[in-house]
Structures are given as structure tokens and as C-alpha cells.
Amino acid sequence: MSRPVRRALLAVTLLLAASVAAAAPAQAVNSVPTLTAIRTGNNPTFDRVVLDLGPGSAPTPGYQLVDELIADPSSEIVWLTGEYFINVSVPYAAAHDDNGNPTYTGPVKFRTRNLSNVMAVAVIGDWEAHLLIGLGVRSRTTVNVFTLTAPNRVVIDVAH
């Protein structure tokens, strides 16, 4: 094999190795964070629900005050304790891993007897990297939903 051919093969090999090495970290950083736990807490002026998420890009959650909760993807009504309901949408998050195994092993629906306004919490959707959480509340009040990082968390504060 001539010297120019060997140099060309070496250059191609190095280029391929560099592109594979550069692509690997990008996949890890852009992975979909998965739900690992749901925690609740009662503060003096608000109830807090925290969705603990695994590593990945921090999602941008949103919420809607709704008359009833609808499960995704079945479109069935979710029966949950509460006078009013809050539908929290967390795009680019999931409650299962890439193999379909659940990453959240807690109850899908549970009562929150220690909170003043939030009566119940439910995972109502986990479909195509879109996580939906439903809250049943006693009264319609101010809701604040935001993300914290290191580790990833979605925080839902519901005023009393």
C-alpha cells in the first residue's frame, strides 16, 4: 500500500472516530428525563408537589385549570378526588425508559391527606415523551409551575 493511500485511510479513520465521539455526548445531554418520584409538602401559604426527574434536558412544564381530567392517550375521564382540577403538562419527559420499563414505581393515583388544598395526585398520561399529571384541589387558587435543575425537578405550587 502506498504512502498516500495509507495517509488517506488514516485521515478517514480519524474523521469517523471524531464524529462518533462528538455524537455520543450529544445524545446523553438531549435524552428525555424520566419521572422517578412524586413528593408532596405543606407550606404555610401553599401546597407543593414535586416531580423528581432523572438526567436529561430540563423540560418546560405548563398547566391548565380544567373541569375534568382526561387520560392520554385513551381520552377516558380520570376520576380523582377534588372540586377542581389542574392538568400539568410536562413535554419531553416520560415515566418509562427507552425499553418501556416504568421508571416511576409509586402509585399512579394517590390522596394527599396532609395538604390543605391539593386533595389528590395522579399520573394521567405518559405518551410519546409527554408526561401529564393531574391534581384534584379543594379551591381554585393561584398555581405556579416551574423547573429546577441539578437534579431535574418540576415544582407545582398551589396556593391555599
Automatic annotation (TrEMBL):
Domain AMIN-like: residue ranges: 34-160
Keywords: Signal
Signal peptide start-end: 1-23
A Pfam family that the UniProt record links to this protein: AMIN-like
Domain of life: Bacteria
InterPro entries, alphabetized: AMIN-like (IPR056303), TAT_signal (IPR006311)
Keyword Signal attached: yes
This protein's name: AMIN-like domain-containing protein
Organism: Amycolatopsis pretoriensis
Taxonomic lineage of the native organism: Bacteria, Bacillati, Actinomycetota, Actinomycetes, Pseudonocardiales
